Amino acid sequence: MNFDPYRYRGRDLHVEGVALKTIAARVGTPFYAYSAEKIRSQFRRFDRAFDGRSHTICFAVKVNSSLAVLRLLALEGAGADIVSGGELALARRAGISADRIVFAGVGKTEAEIEAALQASIFMFNVESEEELELIHSVARRLRRTAPVALRVNPDVEVDTHHHIATGRAENKFGVPFPRAEAVYRRASRMPWLKVVGVQSHIGSQILDVKPYRRTLEKLLPLVDRLAKAGIPLQTINLGGGLGVPYRPGQKGPDPSDLAREVLPLLEGRSLRLIFEPGRFMVAEAGCLVTKVLYRKETAHKNFVIVDAAMNDLARPALYDAYHHVQALRRGGRSWIADVVGPICESADYLAKGRRVPMPKAGDLWAVMTAGAYGYSMSSRYNARPRVPEVLVDGKKWWVVRERETLRDLTRGETLPEVLR
Ligand code: LLP
After folding, report:
1. Distant-in-sequence, close-in-space partners of 335: CB < 8 Å, separation ≥ 6
2. What is the whole-number distance in angstroms between the Cα of residue 103 and the centre of ligand 1?
3. What pTM, to 2 d.p., does this model score?
4. Which of 276, 282, 288, 367 has most ligand 1 atoms within 8 Å of its beta carbon, as the pocket-test mutant?
5. Pairwise CA distance, residues 236 & 33, whole Å
């Protein structure tokens, strides 16, 4: 079931049992709010779709690395897909067990590889031959066998924004498909490596699940050739990427659609299936609440200037992404405007040419579907302290990350003697 935690009760927008205006009155704006129950229900939807098949769901930590969100997912049984030593530390801190952590990324450093080996993670998703050699030498030095999968670039076309398509031959990710077998043979001869699987991540915000099937159709013959060559694999990891609806009325894929595409191809095989979903788990659980500062009409356009900006939510500026904007208090007239933030860049917008409520200063609005790649991509650009994060569960809510203060803006900075 697709549960929607955001509903108007009376005229007020609620997340689960809490009015967003109540939170705004206490923590100020802007802030991110997340529905705990939505995150749980998305995890369970995904998990249930692969019931009866041995599988591991490794939440992509980059998508939302709030400790509370990670902990919530850890309690559901999620593993983690990490891309840095920092994410390893966060995942461990949230109680995600190391044997469910997979480590991706084209630029793992020696220190990060060492930390992951010390922690005994599930496996490294290796992205190049030089990385394979480095992992091997670190493993030998530590006298710890490193479990590895190769991230194979399947050269599969996916219909999504070009910045977030990753499985084409021209992308920097993974080992090129034609090289994969040779690299596996090399890896299998390295005594401190244990070859366990294969991984592919073809892109993000994927609404049509067929490319997953095409990926599998490319990977399985490779798995068979490797088995014949005496390199049997135990895991197959199809990455993340399952998309969500961002527009009202849009329908997103269900994990059962994904299961229908891939499970038949895996029948009779004992491979453990791994997924690295991120956006699917948290996007719809979150919103960014912001306050209207000014209204401005020009000969060309109407603008609504709000107190959230591209430093808080970068997706519109970076990918021209659509996020629905709605008022916390329903009703009244509407007009067409650009919703923009206070930052000194024309790219600083949250919505363009959008029908939105007729604003007046002080009105509260929510930028929807902001739980994924929202806070985690935020910055302090224009010396704007990062906003707080709030977790809502039923009628209860907690500030799970406090608003940064002006002191945070200069943390770690010192003035050299000559400048004092
Ligand atoms: N696994 C790997 C190896 C990845 O690179 C990613 C995302 C994921 C899993 C999770 O993908 P998801 O299930 O969330 O689609 N910042 C962009 C998206 C960048 C995706 C990066 N990789 C955005 O805001 O749309």
Report:
1. 302, 355, 356, 358
2. 14
3. 0.97
4. 276
5. 34
- Overall average pLDDT of the 98-108 stretch: 97
The DSSP output letter for 402 is P
Å from CA of 198 to ligand 1 middle: 18
Q: Is residue 417 part of a domain?
A: no
d(CA 329, CA 324): 15
Could you give the maximum distance between any two Cα atoms of the chain, in Å?
72
Q: Which residues line ligand 1 at a C-beta cut-off of 6 Å?
A: 60, 63, 81, 104, 164, 201, 204-205, 239-242, 276-280, 315, 319, 373
Which candidate in 228, 248, 298, 344 is catalytic? 344
Asked whether residue 93 is assigned to any structural domain, the reply reads: no
Whole domain around residue 137: which residue ranges? 105-275
My answer on whether 258 and 291 are in the same domain is: no
pLDDT classification of 156: cutoffs 50, 70, 90: confident
List the residue whose alpha carbon is closest to atom 19 of ligand 1. Answer: 164
The residue count of the chain comes to 420
Q: Is 58 a catalytic residue?
A: no
Does some domain include residue 27? yes
Which residue out of 46, 58, 63, 160 has the highest number of ligand 1 atoms within 8 Å of its CB and is therefore the one to mutate? 63
Q: What is the pLDDT of residues 187-233, one digit of tens each?
A: 999 999 999 999 999 999 999 999 999 999 999 999 999 999 999 99
Tokens representing 216 are 């599998």
- 297-311 tens-digit pLDDT: 999 999 999 999 999
- 399 is a domain residue: yes
